[in-house]
Amino acid sequence: MLATMKPVDVTKLRGRLPDPANVWRPALLILLLILLPSVMIGAVGILVLVFQRETVDVVLGVLILAFCAALGAGIVLTFSSIRRRAQLSALQTAFVSKVSHDLRTPLTSIRMFVETLQMGRIHDTERYNECLDVLAVETARLSSMIDRLLDWARMEAGRKQYRFQTTSIVDVVNQATAAFRPQTLSGAVELSVDLEENLPTIQADAEALSEVLLDLLNNAYKYTGEHKQIAVRARRDGRTVVVSVTDNGPGIPRSEHVRIFDRFYRGGEASTREIEGSGLGLAMARHTIEAHKGTIHLESEVGRGSTFSLVLPVT
User: Fold this and answer.
1) Whole-angstrom Cα distance, residue 150 to residue 157?
2) Which of 179, 206, 260, 308 is packed most tightly, with the most Cβ within 10 A?
3) For 52, left (φ over 0), alpha (ψ -120 to 50), or beta?
């Protein structure tokens, strides 16, 4: 029917159009739900004005279908948003509970040793110094936790500042592995470092990158079984430098690969084994790497270990 009709000059109908505010106000409300059906409704409405009575039935049918599609899509999106917020709220609650527990542990130790020293129960100089050493370690641990939380708060608020300068990736790897060395003293982990020769420099905050790498090393240590094998590799790949951390742990299911870098998220392995952690480490790592114009990738299969790779642009 539309093909047999003579085309109508739309410019002649402009004066007959109603007030746009009255026509598009409902459409704008629907636009908040989903864009495409709203555009369809607007297009069909113009067809009604142009072709008028001959196509009213067809156009009204399309309008009803488009409206139903918009309404249905809006309902789905609304419930999806509510579900997402509920999940995030649950994760935040678990995060607060876990962090409170983690903070309480060093505080309890500090309070216990302080009370012991105040009461004068220790007269042996050697044991007295041991208590002071424990207090120093627990205080540093507590300070580190608080600094981490403050760092995350700054990242979330967009106020985290990085000191970019020409940096050697070799220095970053050496700094991270040096901080990780105390974990290897027990002999429970084999750490290998393989650095390609003549690696190019990058523009980076060396301290922030070494913290990311140290987090990956600590994760590999925590999630791997008794015979821990961890390998750190750095190589050039075109215009990027790739630094990877590989372990021989249980691996991460593919169903968790999408969410593993989300804030507060902790995989099933962490929950079942009650492994220490807040669920912020990988989220902070991704934020730091993205601030360096790079990317972080995961390659893992159940039973075959995991490899986290940092891809950073060359200077």
Assistant:
1) 11
2) 308
3) left
Residue ranges matching CATH 3.30.565.10 in the chain: 165-313
Q: Looking at the domain 165-313, which fold is it?
A: Heat Shock Protein 90 (3.30.565)
Say which range, 11-15, 107-111, 196-200, 285-289, has the weakest mean pLDDT: 11-15
Domain with CATH 1.10.287.130 in the chain: 95-157
Residues 171, 283: Cα–Cα separation, whole Å: 24
Those residues with Cβ within 8 angstroms of residue 272's Cβ, 6 or more apart along the chain or in another chain: none
Q: Is 229 helix (H, G, I), strand (E, B) or coil?
A: strand
DSSP-assigned letters across all residues of 239-250: TEEEEEEEE-S-
Question: pLDDT (tens digit, 9 = 90+) per residue, 110-136?
Answer: 888 888 888 887 778 888 888 888 888
- Beta partners for residue 189, in sequence order: 228
Q: Which residues of 243-265 are buried (b: 16+ CB within 10 A; e: fewer)?
A: bbbbbbbbbbeeebeeebbbbbb
Cβ atoms of 281 and 262 closer than 8 Å: no
State the Cα–Cα distance between residues 235 and 194, nearest whole angstrom: 9
Beta bridge partners of 204: 165
